[in-house]
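Help: why these numbers?

___
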Amino acid sequence: MLFTSYNFILFLVVLFIIYYLIPKKYQWMLLLLGSFVFYSYSGWDNVAYITVTILATYFVSLKIGQLYEQQDSYIKENKGSLAREDRKKYKAKINAKQKKYLLLCLLFDLGILAVLKYTNFVISNINSIGNLFKATEISFLDIALPMGISFYTFQSVGYLVDVYRGKYAPEKNLGKFALFVSFFPQLVQGPISRFDDLGEQLYAGHSFDYKNVSFGIQRILWGFFKKLVIADRILVGVNTITQNPETYQGIYVFLGMIFYAVQLYADFTGGIDITIGIAQVFGIELKENFQRPFFSKSIVEYWRRWHITMGTWFRDYVFYPVSISSPMLKLSKFSRKHLGEKLGKKVPVYLSTIIVWSATGIWHGASWNFIVWGLLNCLVIIVSQEFEPLYAKFHSKFNVRHNFFFRLFQVARTFLLMCSIRILDCYRNVGISFKMYFSMFTNWNFGEIFNGGLLGLGLKKSDYIVLIFGIIIMTVFSLIQRKGSVREQLTEKSDVLQYAVGIALFVSIITFGAYGIGYDSNQFIYNQF
């Protein structure tokens, strides 16, 4: 059931009406029921997978919590007779049990994700190696990837690790925990929520609040505008270029990567806008996942602003644990001894960074292009960090840090750099991606785009006009957003202005939405993850 389908809109309206009619204490139960009804549209086998993940994480978290209670009870009962060393040994014993349960559940949860998402990728690589020795090929498995499995798995893993770390006690109500994992707006493409941010909001009763509902609807309309008016329209041009690499090279590759950047941003942020808007309609506040990433002046800043909840998840649950792990501490000691203090300190940090970006790449997709994409991001970040002293000297000599044109140059440089790396996402093949990228510098066919080339990409003049105005509107809204919520600013100026913008968005969606023949809106890009 796609967010942009008529079925979903009907589902949402019915759920909304019932939600505010029933007693508040039953609202979370309705959301749980609605979430499973929503997810069942993707297939009952998918419901089985998410249910197994929920049950495993729930019971293991309870066991870890019970061990904490046992530890506290034992120490309290023996407070007077227990020596400090004995208390330390007992805590270590309890922690060892907790860690065993944690690792087993992580292996189980992530194992389901790995088997479903990466088995055929592994088989493909084994077959490629086997072909060199004329070995018999292994047959691929007929596996369909459940919708949003990466998101609900990561959310479950984050919850389990937080319980293990003692950040909060485990949720004892199975239904409430199931709602946290399966809350339907964020199942499609995130954001990846934390239990201490979302849990209480889901279970608390919510009265109808006109401001919340109207703001939520406006946010949903803004998401639909980005998705249907911009992303699905420019998708035609992206597909034409990237699916015909032998025909469209040179300047077309440049256009393709720019088009794809616009499509991905409008598609992904549009989906997140719809998600956050739906949650707000029900009185629930989700974390923002984007903060104007295309205004970033460096790739590090870009990744702080793009898919924020994914970045913080990898930081908190992969980078920090890996960087302070026993093997990494030993490596740090070894490298400082043999490579010197300055270089030795960097080795474990950079190795942890490589691990994180390799994991980020493979999370995005089970193919080599995503792994290379992740490693290229990692390379640019490491090189940037190494050049920081040089940047500092440059800025101390030339006072241009706050110069408008220099900042504009930094923004344009970062945007083009990210587009260049994302060409691996456009073509989904490492060899073709690099071939197409270098064709921009060897195939000088710039004049073709002014000689009917643009109109040969499946887009009409009217499409380009709509896209230009749509991109301008997105840019203006982003600039306004620097001063806070656009909806709040519109309300402060005039309620009439607020309603006028909402009506204009609705009319634009109806009039200019790229619905296609029979209207079957394209899947959101991040559904695949």
In short: The mean pLDDT is 91. The CA atoms of residues 83 and 90 lie 11 Å apart. Residues 296-443 form one domain.
